Design the sequence.
């Protein structure tokens, strides 16, 4: 794995899939002397160049991230601790509860600069 500046951080030891779709959500990275320390890193915006996984975090932040044991599963609270460490918003709650579908979160006059949702209705997008 390489950090945002291209510096080598360590080797990916384990991939933790997303509960929603099974795609990679986090990886455990073996760092330190002989890869004896494993830290967790979110990979939602990572890229793979065919050889290395590149993440948008500094090496120091990766090494200071919450740790994991090899072969363990990742609980929702552990995932949220990792997300918090990297300044990301928490993942959805473990129950998958999306809230009250009848709650009106879209209030008129609260859009950009107080605009309501009808502003620009029926007009073509700028060319």
Sequence:
């Amino acid at each position: 794995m390489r950090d945002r500046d291209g510096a080598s951080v360590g080797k990916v030891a384990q991939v933790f899939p997303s509960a929603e779709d099974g795609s990679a959500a986090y990886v455990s990275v073996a760092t330190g002397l002989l890869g004896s320390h494993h830290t967790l890193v979110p990979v939602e915006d990572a890229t793979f160049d065919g050889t290395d996984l590149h993440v948008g975090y500094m090496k120091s932040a990766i090494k200071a991230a919450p740790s994991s044991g090899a072969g363990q599963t990742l609980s929702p609270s552990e995932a949220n601790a990792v997300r918090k460490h990297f300044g990301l918003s928490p993942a959805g709650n473990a129950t998958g509860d999306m809230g009250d579908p009848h709650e009106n979160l879209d209030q008129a006059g609260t859009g950009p600069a107080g605009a309501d949702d009808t502003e620009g209705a029926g007009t073509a997008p700028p060319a």
